[in-house]
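DM between two lab members

TW: hey, do you still have the GTPase Obg entry open?
JB: yeah, one sec
JB: this one, 337 aa:
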Amino acid sequence: MKFVDEAIVTIKSGSGGAGCVSFRRERFIEKGGPDGGDGGDGGDVILRVDPSKRTLYDYRRQKNLRAQNGAPGLGRQKRGKNGSHCYLSLPPGTIVFDAQTSQVLVDLTDPDKEIVIAQGGMGGRGNKRFATSTNRVPRFAQPGIPGVEMKLRLELKLMADVGLVGLPNAGKSTLISAMSAARPKIADYPFTTLTPTIGMVEPPFGEPFAVADIPGLIEGAHEGVGLGIKFLKHIERTGILVHLIDSSDIDPENPLAQFALINNELAMHSDTLANKTQVVVLNKIDLTGTENRIEAFKNALPDQSIFTISAATGKGVKTLIKHLAQLLQPAVPEDKE
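TW: and the structure you got?
JB:
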């Protein structure tokens, strides 16, 4: 299924059914009183958080969604049937905007939560309701209240505990494959990952946590260059960033060039990303000639804790997983097995 993280839909709640104008007519009763029933209420449009959903793909095709109108009232004081609700099943992390004003209407984060975004119109009252001592034969009833129509913009921001960031070809897809059961496309050229991937990691202690593999960032990403801001938004909700760097590509003369470039893009996108906890990881230590490059990087960043791994061979990955689990669940000792 294609990854879709934005969609615009038009919704409309059901209109209320009209009240009924009716009079009792039975044998031996020539002039019965009013017995018109009320109209049924229109159906609501309801947003439902569905943890099984991963994209907004369904709503690239379904542009118009409507709840059912209420049925009109009937004679003998029979109330019209209420209209059926319309449900939009959305993945966790979906933000719902008013497409006209760009106002945030709701941020859907809680699994299985349901929110009425457009309430159905109330059914009109039948003429039975208007009978009084001075007007015993009312020949009118109320129309139903119209439903509410809105245009919504849906935007998905993936919800993960850890986000992997780095330049293209840093090895993020290989690392998430080594850490979890996720199997993104892997190849030795830039922009192999064209869509975000989430993998669930089971550490040796504590609760499982989710890791998001974000497509590689390049200079100018905050302005949309490369895959740009289309994917930067997906790491805004993560608690921790793993900053992955290809150790074989470190320039000994300017060892922090890659590190600074990515951090600048994060800061230019938002203060939220710039201030997130980062775990710096040097990857591809299995390649020859990386020792001096790694040493130059560590010397240039002496106050930073730095992990060295080979995502391809698995070396150092378990240690990294334990550290991430401890950061996410600080009550659990890191050295617990």
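TW: got it. The mean pLDDT is 85. The longest strand covers residues 149-156.
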